[in-house]
Amino acid sequence: MIVALAFVPIDNLDDAFDALSNQLANELTPILNWLEDKYMGRPGHNNCRRRPALFPPEIWSMYQHTISDIGRTNNYAEAAHRRLKRELDVVHPLIWTFIDGFRRVQKGRDVTYEQYVRGERGPVKRREYILVDHRLLTTVNDYNNRDFIEYLPGIAHNFLME
Predict the structure, then answer these.
(1) How far apart are CA 152 and CA 158, in angstroms?
(2) Most confident listed range (24-38, 114-128, 148-162)
(3) Is the distance from CB of 29 to CB of 17 less than 8 angstroms?
(4) 138 - beta bridge partners?
C-alpha cells in the first residue's frame, strides 16, 4: 500500500500517511521513515509543517496525472535507452561508435515519426495495461467515497511488485 500513496491528492497525503502508518506492521517502520525522509519531508517544529523532501510530492504524485489521463511512467525514455544500448552493443563505446549508433537510432525514430505524420497508428497498448489504467481511474475517481484504508489497497492491488 506504500506505493499507493502516489495516488492520493497532495493535500491529503499527510492524513493518508498517518492512516497507513497506524495500519502497517511495526517491521515496516524503517521503510516508512525512509519514505518520510526522502519523499515527504519530516514534520517540522510542533508538527505544523513538513521540511522540504529530497523528492517532493509534486514530482512523484500520480493522482492528477491519473485524473487527467497523462502518462504515469517514463517508459518512453527507458525504451529509447534500451534501443540505444542494443544498437551500440558495448558498455563504454568510443565517441565515433556512439555517434554512429546514435545516428542509426535517430534514423529509425525519423521513420517512426513519418509514419505518425502520415496517419499510421502507433503501437497499441497491451490489453492488460488498458485494464489496469481503467481500474486505477475508477478507483481514483471514487477517492472521495472511500477512507484511506479502503482506498490504498484498492490502488495497490493493481501493481505487481517484484
Answers:
(1) 10
(2) 24-38
(3) no
(4) none
CA distance 42 to 27: 20
Q: What's the grid cell of residue 98? A: 556512439
Q: For residue 123, give the 3-state DSSP assignment.
A: coil
Residue 77 is placed in which grid cell?
Answer: 525514455
Q: Which long-range contacts (CB under 8 A, 24 or more apart) does 107-114 make?
A: 108/83
Terminal Cα distance for the chain, rounded: 14
Question: What are phi and psi for residue 27, nearest 5 degrees?
Answer: -65, -20
Residue 115 one-letter amino acid: Q
Using alpha carbons, list the distances in angstroms from residue 151 to 25, 53, 57, 67, 117. 18, 24, 18, 15, 41
Q: Chain-centre distance of CA 141, in angstroms?
A: 18
| 116 touches 122 (CB < 8 A) | yes
Which residue in 63, 74, 57, 65 sits closest to 9, CA to CA? 63
Task: Say which residue the cell 500500500 belongs to.
Answer: 1
CA distances from 150 to 1, 10, 19, 57 (A): 10, 18, 11, 21
| The model scores a pTM over 0.90 | no
